[in-house]
């Protein structure tokens, strides 16, 4: 099959990237294009390739040997693992350019000269110098004109007006294609992808996400990025997003802010929702009380095994927190009544559904104290082979639980999401 010499960038997304011997390197997630002065033909500089480790790297187009319907083949299987970074005179074709608004001065379509058009795709074509240049742009009219609404037109790049960095910075550019790209990605991967985008584009996408999805993504971002995204939202919506986040993640965020900014964020939340965050802030961030979540799975002794399993099946609960249910005397909101013990999910799966959890709980369950240090917690998890553990005060009240992922977050450097051990940006 003859390799393609012209291809539309939207069709590249998801294609496998292979080395010369067919070895898998990753998948195409975007195309980096140059965005110079008006009148200069944009050039496709390289591919944003996602490795199996979810890292996104830059692969120059000169490394591309062929583009087939199902794969992109490179000249070598050795690639630079430095993390993708988009420079000021560059843009991500799918993440930034598609869905943006342009106009045309094409003499073949005089009726569209004053009509806003939406970019739906970009064609890149290989020239004699082996450079991949933007040759055509697929657009769609945003309102009814002389043509039927929804018709897609292919226009030569030189007749497209407004496809520049300056225009991409204009308020109101669409985000539909970017949202579709992120739809099936894990929150941590979306967070990494958003950090590659300019602040304006990132904030536009954040505004278009629903509260729960945005909350999940924010929890995977560094504190500075979290603050900037929340500041871009309307105050009422920022409060809703904070309420959808885990209390311990909100506490980590506000603990890094000046007191006035922290209080401003907490004031946007419902008082009942912010109360658990304020309790966490009473503890040092490097203790069990500061690391714990105040919302573990809590039941009373007269709950049945089937009720416990139903709680564990909640898809909003991560696997570490779902490994254990904690049994207390009422009330069941933290800080609870007396802590009675816990039941591991493996024990629940072995018992009849109608049995009571009070009859199978481990009353001798090891427990953490709110003042326990990170080293104490690390030794605790290593000793007892647990992934979730209760935090109990001297009066035997259950205050919360520490999951192993919370501990790992606390043990890693605070800027671990921003640092790149495999190299600096290109």
UniProtKB/TrEMBL annotation:
<dbReference type="GO" id="GO:0016020">
    <property type="term" value="C:membrane"/>
</dbReference>
<keyword id="KW-0129">CBS domain</keyword>
<dbReference type="InterPro" id="IPR027275">
    <property type="entry name" value="PRC-brl_dom"/>
</dbReference>
<dbReference type="GO" id="GO:0015095">
    <property type="term" value="F:magnesium ion transmembrane transporter activity"/>
</dbReference>
<protein>
    <submittedName>
        <fullName>Mg/Co/Ni transporter MgtE</fullName>
    </submittedName>
</protein>
<dbReference type="InterPro" id="IPR011033">
    <property type="entry name" value="PRC_barrel-like_sf"/>
</dbReference>
<dbReference type="Pfam" id="PF26205">
    <property type="entry name" value="SH3_actinomycetes"/>
</dbReference>
<feature type="domain" description="CBS">
    <location>
        <begin position="292"/>
        <end position="358"/>
    </location>
</feature>
<dbReference type="Pfam" id="PF05239">
    <property type="entry name" value="PRC"/>
</dbReference>
<dbReference type="InterPro" id="IPR006668">
    <property type="entry name" value="Mg_transptr_MgtE_intracell_dom"/>
</dbReference>
<dbReference type="Pfam" id="PF00571">
    <property type="entry name" value="CBS"/>
</dbReference>
<dbReference type="InterPro" id="IPR058838">
    <property type="entry name" value="SH3_actinomycetes"/>
</dbReference>
<dbReference type="InterPro" id="IPR006669">
    <property type="entry name" value="MgtE_transporter"/>
</dbReference>
<dbReference type="InterPro" id="IPR038076">
    <property type="entry name" value="MgtE_N_sf"/>
</dbReference>
<dbReference type="InterPro" id="IPR000644">
    <property type="entry name" value="CBS_dom"/>
</dbReference>
<dbReference type="InterPro" id="IPR046342">
    <property type="entry name" value="CBS_dom_sf"/>
</dbReference>
<feature type="domain" description="CBS">
    <location>
        <begin position="361"/>
        <end position="422"/>
    </location>
</feature>
<dbReference type="Pfam" id="PF03448">
    <property type="entry name" value="MgtE_N"/>
</dbReference>
